[in-house]
Predict the structure of Glycerol kinase.
Amino acid sequence: MTDAHTAGPFIAAIDQGTTSSRCIVFDRDGRIVSVDQKEHEQIFPKPGWVEHNANEIWTNVQEVVAGAIQKAGITRDDIKAIGITNQRETTVLWDKNTGEPVHNALVWQDTRTDSLCKELGRNVGQDRFRRETGLPLASYFSGPKARWLLDNVEGLRERAEAGDILFGTMDTWVIWNLTGGVNGGKHVTDVTNASRTMLMNLHTMEWDDKIAESIGVPLGILPEIRSSAEVYGEVTGGKLGDLLGGIPVASALGDQQAALFGQTCFSEGETKSTYGTGTFMVMNTGDKIINSYAGLLTTVGYKIGDQPTVFALEGSIAVTGSLVQWMRDQMGLVSTAAEIETLALSVEDNGGAYFVPAFSGLFAPHWRSDARGVIAGLTRYVTKAHLARAVLEATAWQTREIADAMVKDSGDELVALKVDGGMTSNNLLMQTLSDVLDAPVVRPMVAETTCLGAAYAAGLAVGFWSSTDELRANWRRAAEWTPHMDAETRDREYKNWLKAVERTMGWIDDDDEH
Ligand SMILES: Nc1ncnc2c1ncn2[C@@H]1O[C@H](COP(=O)(O)OP(=O)(O)O)[C@@H](O)[C@H]1O
Ligand SMILES: O=P(O)(O)OC[C@H](O)CO
């Protein structure tokens, strides 16, 4: 409920994430007024395949928005705008006449387009995709996922060519439904989400017809590319029409870009890292499109209205928090995620064990789909407590590899790292991170930076906040960790980590199923 400290008006933000959808209502100081959240089903039809039911997601989004509004005890008149942030790359195609998805959405972690990407590499060449889109050819991105659907859902390509099919990432799906669906829903995406499709040219910020043709995706199904902070339309659709009709839908940002925005990394060189299921480190590179030679992604940071585009470098790590989940759910090593810290603290070090969780191959900076997970350095001395250490260290060393790549690509030293996400409640991990990076690690008061970023962008679009300077003033430090590890230990441990990484590679042959 609202109180004297959180007097309206407010901005609501929807975070349509990989495991759940949530809605958070924020006040003018960027403080949380209410939260509602709902998980959706993870569908694994085959090893390496991951799907979501887009209808279930839309139902959940409507419920959490209604839930957050109700918990805040506010009405439509108190809300000035709604912002959207979302899991990126996850791809859905639907019939624009019925609003029905033609297939489950293919999730960013899904590896079914590996062989298609290899074929594109052979026929078109890796370099061309990197040069034009900023991305390496990998099953992670949306374009190949759309091609897979067009090739594998019977009759779909013909329907697409007849103009009956729409493509979207989750921002597009949610906005289209929020703004009316079959009754005139807006078919739009923002530049940050578009930059993850492998179909947008980073230099023109438009769909690249040649790239789209080489991947096999017709331009006619793609949404209009808009900025990250502007009014796309008004809420009219679904159950929310009655509750929130007329409220402007005023921002869209991929979740990692939203976290960059919510952490107020508005200056060139400022960097944040989000520790959830996976980990994503993003550096603001200002107006520079930095081509990565060290295995990072070149991507869009954000674009506010008609202001110039801000670019970014990103290091994406597929498995970090999900390794802790796996240790809890599949291995039974701990019964809660938080227990991993207690177990790890019961020993001094990793006992010589290194755990490289290459469960979906290795993302940045290696981009090796043939890698699989390895625990290296095992002896009879190693206990489950040492493994708990190795699990946490895996997140820290993977971050170090990304940080090194960022220094190589940008030429800027890492001065400090702003962190957020569920894993940052683990103090041992945060200390280890500072130790291996040899840099301070800082966490803000509002840990929900993803939703906050979407709220900030929506608030700027409708004049609720006046400038990014005003937003910066809201950022307050909650905790800081500084490095204590000596250089000799750090170098020795890093060398061992890199040796373990080497051992994951080349496990999968071309004819292997998973
Ligand atoms: N105390 C902890 N120590 C280590 N990992 C944790 C801890 N608490 C949560 N996690 C991990 O953090 C992840 C959840 O973080 P969250 O930011 O909610 O993720 P997402 O937004 O990707 O769903 C889970 O994978 C969980 O295993
Ligand atoms: O929903 P999250 O937090 O797991 O983030 C997923 C990323 O956007 C994938 O690129």
